[in-house]
Amino acid sequence: MNTPELKTAIADGLARLSTHADELRDLDAALGDGDLGITVSSGSQAVIDALGQLDDSVSPSEVAKACAKAFANANPSTMAALVAGGLLAGSKVWSGKTTIDLTDSIDFAQAAADSISTRGKSQRGDKTILDALMPAIDALRTAPTTDTALSAAIAAAEKGVEDTKGVQSRRGRAAWLQERSIGLADPGATAFLRFLQEWKTR
To answer: Rounded to 5 degrees, what angle do the CA atoms 50, 113, 144 make?
Structure first.
């Protein structure tokens, strides 16, 4: 995937992700402060606008950096900061590349996950976005073919989101609910799942 293709794919995926803003708001309201829908919708629009201003001659790494800056500047939320940090970390593994393939995407996602884990002081099983992101990365690595990789990642993320329902939140505002958080899907993990699903249907 070259830069023009990457820009189009991201913009299309985020435009569709914004249609899930109400769902994400409601999920986040049950576990936190309910701002995830706004974070996703305003952040997505900011990224789409930023991509529209980027020249097609820039590198994939510069595309990722522009996305990170736009998403962070659109919102003061913790999720926005974590996502932006993840995107910046991922951009570094694309340094020097003019096109990206599945392996590059896996490396990007792993760098992003590592950044989110470090900055958010969280790990898989803490009921966060990592519970969908990390299983998806594992599925991408082990997919038998490139054509089946995204479907495998979506299936893994779906299971990860479902698994968060049985876990007590351990990070962020949701942790205040303690055992009352059990039975509810993690909003951040759900947001990542919806992005993967919309990336596939773009």
So the answer is: 100
